[in-house]
Design a protein that fits this description.
alpha+beta, 33% helix
């Protein structure tokens, strides 16, 4: 029985495990809709409903906030999604008859959310 190989032994790892794990948080960004005097209120509400998927009442609140204060935060989340939402808002153009006047897109920007 002396011809048996020795049993393997466990060695200690080279790195120490962390006592506390930290979750890395993605800083949020706001999508901000600016007020303008060119687009109709109905057009703005329609765009908000299509892009954000919000109810008519919420779209009306956001539109009125932009109209009365000059701007409204319409969405908050990760930067990549905020960029997408702003781009989606800007793809809609209001065209009115007669003369098919194109009023262009709504003005929409993104900015870091406070405290981020």
């Amino acid at each position: 029985m002396a011809d048996r190989p020795p049993e393997p032994t466990a060695t200690s790892p080279l790195t120490k495990p962390r006592d506390e794990t930290q979750t890395r948080r993605v800083p949020p960004y706001h999508v901000v809709l600016a007020n303008d005097d060119d687009h109709s209120m109905e057009f703005v509400v329609d765009v908000l409903r299509k892009v954000l998927g919000v109810a008519l009442e919420r779209a009306l609140q956001l539109m009125l906030e932009a109209h009365e204060t000059g701007r409204a935060v319409i969405w908050t989340g990760p930067r990549e999604v905020a960029e997408l939402k702003a781009e989606q808002v800007e793809t809609f153009h209001e065209i009115r008859k007669p003369g098919d006047t194109d009023f262009g897109p709504l003005t929409c920007t993104i900015e870091p959310a406070p405290g981020a």
